[in-house]
Amino acid sequence: MTRAVHLASTDSVDTHELAAVAARTFPLACPPSIAPENVASFIDTNLSAARFAEYLADPQRVILTARDDDRIVGYAMVVNGVGDDPDVARAVEVRPAAELSKMYVLPEFHGGELSAALMERALAAVGGWGVRCVWLGVNQENVRAQRFYSKNGFRISGTRTFLVGADLREHDFVMVRELD
Ligand SMILES: CC(C)(COP(=O)(O)OP(=O)(O)OC[C@H]1O[C@@H](n2cnc3c(N)ncnc32)[C@H](O)[C@@H]1OP(=O)(O)O)[C@@H](O)C(=O)NCCC(=O)NCCS
How confident is the model over 42-54, as pLDDT tens digits? Predict the structure, then answer.
């Protein structure tokens, strides 16, 4: 069995397989209070194969996949910039910055070394952007992910609200990690 992390590209990744992993792992980050239809709506809008094809073609985004043999078992996406949310802008003081926008691993691979390796490779892959800080939003109820990020150099720097589905505002911590 070979576990590896790969830089994804429009040539190298099956967007349907990636979307299937995204659909399986996104609900793991959601608190039980989010209605299943709002989770499904978020997945339809943001995590379809067509959306991943757009993300892969965007030079301001980088996606890495973690693979077990050839099967995708996790992925990370980094997006250049801070965006236009004023709460995020306040929390991310060190610039230029990029967002660790997605960080998802199948449950059977949690608790090992794969997640940290995937994240470090994703951050290394955007070295050419010259960013001095990486930021992310994590649901305030997602304690496992917060613990993972804290262990890996992130600290809480602020909060924001985040829309999942039509009308439910979720509360995130904004975490930041300054790069050397
Ligand atoms: C976030 C994620 C990539 C982290 O990978 P991982 O392999 O689980 O990370 P690790 O095991 O290295 O670290 C998780 C830590 O949380 C702890 N933990 C696990 N479940 C927990 C819980 N319910 N409450 C509190 N801590 C928990 C683990 O014990 C571990 O801490 P430790 O190393 O001090 O024991 C992975 O859990 C994941 O894909 N989760 C689902 C999707 C998600 O939430 N993504 C993040 C969106 S912002």
Answer: 999 999 999 999 9
